[in-house]
């Protein structure tokens, strides 16, 4: 199912879960960078209602930069699969000590990669000999089969309305 966020200028970005990249691991903790520089860097990606918004972000969906203020709306899909935040963190930690932010992002990326690979195998089984002619694109008039699992999974979802 698709979801949408409405930007401050009224522009609507509609996307599906598989179009959302793995959340970026960013940090403003560089001790050598002056605080003013950190704040300026953060200010220009924080909020699209601000005069400081530079139309850039570490999170980009369908070519559109997503200000940090919208990240929660975009990224909660991973957590919503679980009945509670505790269940989500327990799943990622394997019942052991809870992981830090970067380790969580890494685990989520691994899970998404595994899911994409499973969908590729499902598509290959389902489409058989027509797999390469179904999952591809035209480049300069020549048909090119897709090779990236994420692209194949995205197209499979689109074909099946998932």
Task: Offer a quick outline of the entry.
The chain is α+β, with helices and mostly antiparallel strands. It has helices at residues 35-46, 71-75, 77-80, 85-93, 101-127, 131-134, 149-160; strands at 2-6, 12-16, 60-61, 64-65, 136-139, 142-145.
Structure description:
This protein has 162 residues and is an alpha+beta fold. The chain has 2 domains: 1-75, no CATH class; 100-162, no CATH class. The protein is 45% helix and 14% strand. The protein is built from 7 helices and 6 strands. The protein has helices spanning 35-46, 71-75, 77-80, 85-93, 101-127, 131-134, 149-160; strands spanning 2-6, 12-16, 60-61, 64-65, 136-139, 142-145. The chain has a two-stranded antiparallel ribbon with strand order 1-2. Strands 3-4 form a two-stranded antiparallel sheet. The chain has a two-stranded antiparallel sheet with strand order 5-6. A hairpin with a 2-residue loop joins β5 (136-139) and β6 (142-145). The radius of gyration is 19 Å and the shape is globular. The relative contact order is 0.11. The model has no long low-confidence stretch (mean pLDDT 84).
Q: What is the element layout, followed by pairings?
A:
Layout (H helix, E strand, L loop, with lengths): L1 E5 L5 E5 L18 H12 L13 E2 L2 E2 L5 H5 L1 H4 L4 H9 L7 H27 L3 H4 L1 E4 L2 E4 L3 H12 L2
Antiparallel strand pairs: 1-2, 3-4, 5-6
Helix pairs in contact: 5-7
Question: What's the structural domain tally?
Answer: 2
State the separation between the terminal residues, measured CA to CA. 6 Å
**Which structural category do the helix and sheet elements fall into?**
alpha+beta
Please report the total strand number as a whole number: 6
Helix content: 40-55%
Write down the overall geometry: globular
Stretches where pLDDT is under 50 for at least 5 consecutive residues are none
Alpha carbon gyration radius: 19 Å
Order of helices and strands: EEHEEHHHHHEEH
Strand fraction: 5-15%
Separate helix tally: 7
Spatial order of the strands in the main sheet? 1-2
Q: Which whole number gives the mean pLDDT?
A: 84
Q: Tell me about the largest β-sheet.
A: 2 strands, antiparallel
């Amino acid at each position: 199912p698709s979801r949408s966020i409405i930007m401050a200028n009224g522009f609507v970005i509609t996307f599906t879960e598989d179009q959302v990249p793995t959340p970026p691991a960013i940090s403003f903790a560089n001790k050598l960078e002056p605080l003013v520089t950190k704040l300026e860097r953060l200010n220009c990606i924080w909020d699209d209602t601000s005069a400081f918004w530079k139309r850039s972000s570490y999170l980009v969906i369908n070519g559109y930069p997503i200000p940090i203020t919208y990240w929660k709306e975009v990224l909660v899909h991973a957590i919503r699969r679980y009945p509670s935040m505790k269940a989500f963190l327990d799943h990622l930690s394997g019942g052991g000590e809870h992981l830090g932010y970067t380790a969580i992002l890494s685990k989520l990326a691994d899970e998404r990669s595994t899911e994409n690979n499973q969908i590729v195998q499902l598509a290959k089984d389902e489409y058989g000999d027509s797999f390469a002619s179904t999952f591809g694109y035209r480049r300069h008039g020549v048909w090119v089969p897709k090779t990236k699992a994420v692209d194949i999974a995205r197209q499979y979802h689109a074909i099946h309305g998932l």
